[in-house]
Write the structure tokens for this entry.
Amino acid sequence: MRHELKHLIHMGDYLAIRSRLRHIMKQDAHVDQTGHYFIRSLYFDNYEDKALKEKLNGYCEREKYRLRYYNYDERYVNLEKKSKKNQLGKKDSVTLTKEQCQKLLDGDWDFMRSSSNPVLIEFYSKLYSQQLRPRTIVDYIREPYVYEAGNVRVTFDSQIRTGLYNKDFFSHAVPTMPALETGYFIMEVKYDNYLPEVIAAAIQTGQRQSSAFSKYAACRQYE
């Protein structure tokens, strides 16, 4: 598992931190010409909102499942299991074709039954045992930076939007609404065993505290 820190920061903090990071970190290889990429996720939960309630109630150990694709490239979709234990996080994933993903969303799950992938096997089981179902679309823009020592990744997420009750995962015309106030960013810091001092110093502002902000929870607040 990796250390994961999350901070809600305003525009001033973002500009200052980004300016420092650009001198010591590289941008992720998958960004577009603007230095960003688009992410669309579709989160799963059960009818009792297990994942949402575990987050809101501050459970130390929790997990959630989501489908995700990048930059509107729908040819391949990641099914991800995100596990958290205190400030440690782990992501396990399996790549699905668009056709497999559409079958999953249509309730045609037979293709998963013969899979040897542990993520897909567990997810298939929980579709039945926990009655997991698609809950909400989450869209946002990510600006990522990487640093080899410590396997550090710092990302700034902005323009976070929710699809509310619409779950048409592959539609570019899904109406969405903002889930985060304009001028604010979610800064996530992920690293393995240690955070290099040069990075720790670069992300300090003196005005920021670790936040329990959850994009999934924020995008469910209007229901």
Summary: The chain has one domain: 2-219.
